[in-house]
Request: fold
Amino acid sequence: MPAGDSNEVKNGGQTNGHAAAAGDNYESGTFTSGSLRVKAPSHPDAFLFTSESVGAGHPDKMCDQISDAVLDAHIAQDPNAKVACESVTKTGMVLVCGEITSNAVVDYQKVIRDTVREIGYDSSEKGFDGTTCNILIALEQQAPEIGAGVHLGRNELDVGAGDQGIMFGYATDETEEAMPLTLHLSHRMCERYSDLMKNGTFPWARPDCKSQVTAEYIYDSGACVPQRVHTVVFSGQHSPKVTLAEFRREVLEKVIKHVIPEHLLDNETVYHINPCGTFIMGGPFNDAGLTGRKIIVDTYGGWGAHGGGAFSGKDPTKVDRSAAYAARWVAKSLVKAGLARRVLVQVSYAIGIAAPLSVSIFHYGSSKYTERELLEIVQKNFDLRPGVIMRELSLKRPIYKETASYGHFGRKQFPWEVPKKIVL
Reply:
């Protein structure tokens, strides 16, 4: 770390054992890039919970977007395409591999290069260039036994699940989006940084970034109620044209304080902004990327549960994706109907079987209904066969690349985020 950049500044520049770098004297809050202190919650009954997000330029998210761009290209021409597409990236290279059965004719070179450039990797100075990178394609047909057992010769509504597995959906009333506050704020900070890069407000910004939010919560009859933001972490890639002090000041004012409501920040909030120092080279130059390696970022930030299956690169016959979207739809619909303040939904499937093997509801004590009563309400209102899910959520459309950064849930443009009117 550069000399003078390890610091902790609190309340107008009173230091606690570290040298303050020029420009890091904030009027309120605690700024730190090297402190080992862990602050306890301010409320005796509070607990801390942390979620993270990563930007579109993170190498794993880059691979998610490439895989979903390939999926969209197929579905745009052939809504019944069967796609299982994985991507790998490292310095100057993208590998796309998997199994695809489709009537579409796709220019993979164009799809992949356009996606990489759209993310912002358009120069080797940033660590990656979508125009000059090497692209390797290793795609084969889906195994015929799978097609025969899952969809061939079946009514569309009785299509079997594309694989076995367990999926979860979660919703909470702590935000308008029915998402955990810690994850919602983390997503929005990464998205904000990218927006400021693309609109020229941050001309020095580069595509790779990560964020993390720790919040204090208290329980209220099973619901989680955020009290304040305890700690914020943000690391962003940038050019050498910005000083570390200026970077930290700009990110604090135009990203963090723009995203996080003022009432959740106070003089005790701790900020770690590029705590490792400068971050000039990022993306695949620094770290290999792989589709499906950010499944907690994609879902609920560590809240609720996760069945383990990734989303990106999979067509909607794969219940890892479609059933997880449906489970979120169920959970959010229950919360928005006022039937519970916090809900976890689990579903499970077997390959080739249409009906779910199990559906379970957990309300954490936040509902006046029993969990069995909520389950009966769900069974009355939702048909969770994959074919029905695809029809009701209009999943045979090229909508997937947009899901691949800043979260699959909590964004109103997606149909599973529109609550269903519940009939009791």
